Amino acid sequence: MFDHMVWDKITISCDGWTNRNGRPQMNMLHISRHGELAHRRVDGSNETKSAVWIAEHISKDIEERGPPNVLQFVADNASANILAGKLVRERYPHIIFGGCVAHGLDLLMEDIGKLPWVKETCGGSSVYLGIPTTPKRPGLESLCASRPDAAVRISSPSS
User: Fold this and answer.
1) pTM beyond 0.85
2) Is the torsion defined by CA of 140, 145, 147, 149 positive or negative?
3) Which domains does the chain have, with CATH numbers?
C-alpha cells in the first residue's frame, strides 16, 4: 500500500508506552508529505528502556530510510527521549529532535489543573476530550480501545 510513496523529507515519531502486562513498547511512525506509516512496534520486554535503547531504534529507522531522507524525529518530553535526541544528533547532526507539542500541552494542562483556584472553580470535574472520527481516520477508536489506561473518550461529531 505504501510502496508508491516517496519517502524523502520524513519525520520519524516514536511513542513509548507500557502494555497490559507491564512490558515496555515503542511505536515507530514515519510521516512524509505523502502520508503516514505505522512502521513498526518495538517490544522492549527484555530490554531496559534507556536513552541508548531508544536512540538505537531511532537510528535503525533513520538507516532504513536513508539519513539524507530524514529531517527530524519527534518523541514525548521524557528525559530518556531528550537524551536519546542528543545521542541521535551526535551521529546525524543534520536531523532535528523535537519534543512532542501535544505532550507538552498535556503536561501544561495537568499543571494548570493543580492550581488551587482552578481546582476550586472546576470542583473536581473530569476533563472530556472528544475526537471526531471519520471514514478516513477510523483507527483512533481502536487505538484508544487497545489502551485501557487512555484518558480519552472517542465521540462522533455532533449533528
Assistant:
1) no
2) positive
3) 10-123 (3.30.420.10), 124-154 (no CATH)
